[in-house]
Write a structure and sequence with these properties.
The protein is an all-alpha fold. Helix content is about 85%, strand content about 0%. It contains 3 helices and no strands. GO terms for molecular function: sodium:proton antiporter activity.
Length: about 80
Amino acid sequence: MIRLALWGLMIASLMGFWRVIIGPTVPDRIVAADALTIILTTVLALLAIDFGNGIFLDIALAFSILAFADVLIMAKYFEHGELHR
């Protein structure tokens, strides 16, 4: 069952990646990139369950914190056009 969920998430990530590349506006691309980080975090959590290895959860936690900061930085940059305000 976990393998089926992983395949579904991979299909969802392909659609999200398509939106990042083709997105008509910059906010669409930012939201798609954020959705991709959520999907990847979920994939890492499912891999931790599938392999029975807790290190994947540590990696997922660190990745989600960095992804949240990344989305905030991208949003601020595209709103103001610079990062040092």
